[in-house]
Amino acid sequence: MIAMYHDYINSYLDEVGEIAKKLDREEINQAINVLKDVRDKKGRLFILGVGGGAGHASHAVNDFRKLTGIEAYTPVDNVSELTARTNDDGFHTIFSNWLLGSNLRANDALLIFSVGGGNAEKNISMNLVEAMRLAKEVGAKIIGVVGRDGGHTKKMADVCVLVPVVNPENVTPHTEAFQAVVWHIIVSHPKFRAQKGKWESTQGTHKK
């Protein structure tokens, strides 16, 4: 007998639609403005995240470099350095020390992908917190795409896109899914992108 899972599928997709309607369009617009300024000033974009956010960071680096022409990097692409810094210095400074080694400066920006945004008081995601503290010290911009109440990222970011909570039981999957939605809105925006994606650029050129 085939199990029926429609109730959860339907409710989950209803939640997706509700979140899409509630996303703050102006914050996304402001994120594009910040990133355009970074690109115009020949600054760099450093994308940070842990867990699912780390996977997003690697993917997003590709999109920002290829589609928007921003010089972008993420420390999570170098597992050897990441684990060495964890072993030698501690997990809480893996990003800040990496950024110091990359000479983070005022023309640069951080893009943070996090479900909770970090919490200094509760010692949660301190690697993100320390990276943001360094960014503030040098005058680099901070953009966050986060969930829940935004945490430390919401407090420190110049621009913070908050993924609305419509069901506390699904905060993590919805936040991580919409992080991808938000950065794809940015890199595909026709007034911001430097080139189209491969499949979009071939529309109208193939034979039926």
How would you characterize the overall build of this protein?
With 208 residues, the chain is of the alpha/beta class. The chain has one domain (22-195): Glucose-6-phosphate isomerase like protein, domain 1 (Rossmann fold, 3-Layer(aba) Sandwich). It has nine helices and five strands. α3 (52-68) packs parallel to α8 and α4 (79-89) packs across α5. α7 links the parallel β4 (141-146) and β5 (159-162). 53% of the residues lie in helices and 12% in strands.
Architecture blueprint of SSEs:
Elements: H1 6-22, H2 25-40, E1 44-49, H3 52-68, E2 71-73, H4 79-89, H5 94-101, E3 109-114, H6 126-138, E4 141-146, H7 151-156, E5 159-162, H8 171-188, H9 198-201
Parallel strand pairs: 1-2, 1-3, 3-4, 4-5
Helix pairs in contact: 3-8, 4-5, 5-6
Short description:
The protein has helices at 6-22, 25-40, 52-68, 79-89, 94-101, 126-138, 151-156, 171-188, 198-201, and strands at 44-49, 71-73, 109-114, 141-146, 159-162.
Return the CATH class.
Alpha Beta
SS-based class = alpha/beta
The largest pleated sheet is described as: 5 strands, parallel
Q: Quote the average pLDDT.
A: 93
Helix count from the secondary structure assignment? 9
Percent of residues in β-strands: 5-15%
CATH architecture: 3-Layer(aba) Sandwich
Strands, total number: 5
How many structural domains does the protein architecture include? 1
Outline type: globular
Tell me the Rg in angstroms: 18 Å
How far is it from the N-terminal to the C-terminal residue, by CA? 42 Å
Order of helices and strands: HHEHEHHEHEHEHH
